[in-house]
Amino acid sequence: MQRTRHTLAMACYVYVLAAKNKGGRCVTYVGWTRDLERRLAEHNGAGKRGAKSTRGRVWVLLYAEKHRTKRKAMAREYALKQDRAFRARLRSP
Predict the structure, then answer these.
(1) What mean pLDDT is reported for the chain?
(2) Residue 3: pLDDT over 70
(3) Phi/psi of residue 76, nearest 5 degrees
(4) What residues form DSSP beta bridges with 12?
(5) Cα(41)–Cα(10) distance, rounded to whole angstroms?
(6) Please, what sign has the CA dihedral across residues 29, 32, 35, 36?
(7) Cβ atoms < 10 Å from Cβ of 62
(8) What domains are defined for the chain?
(9) Nearest 5°: CA angle at 34, between 73 and 60?
């Protein structure tokens, strides 16, 4: 019997979070996930899976995009990490 590999296209999200650092300045974090609500909760201390750089802060979701594949989400995450002007516009009221 031959094994076949079935890959279901699960939606992936690219997101931008914001928090205040100790000096009161707004900092952003860009990431990707399959479950946006769970990932935000992890960044805010639920469980031990939040990124090390996000621990100890209260993060709010500023922006999210939905992508059909992990590859596209990861490519967009990289682009957003390079685009500081975009993240600065998100922080502005």
Answers:
(1) 86
(2) no
(3) -70, -35
(4) 67
(5) 20
(6) positive
(7) 16
(8) 12-91 (3.40.1440)
(9) 90
Full-model pTM: 0.82
- Which one, of 64, 54, 2, lies nearest residue 33 by Cα? 64
Distance set, CA 6 to CA 3, 9, 18, 68 (Å) = 10, 10, 37, 16
Confidence band of 82 (pLDDT split at 50, 70, 90) = very high
Give per-residue pLDDT as tens, 24-53: 889 999 999 999 999 999 888 876 766 667
Report the distance separating Cα 63 and Cα 87, nearest Å: 9
Q: Which two tokens stand for residue 53?
A: 């750089």
Strand ranges inside 1-93, DSSP E = 12-20, 26-33, 60-67
Q: Which pair of tokens denotes residue 5?
A: 């590999």
R_g of the chain computed on alpha carbons: 15
3-state SS, residue 37: helix
Q: What was the pLDDT predicted at 37?
A: 93
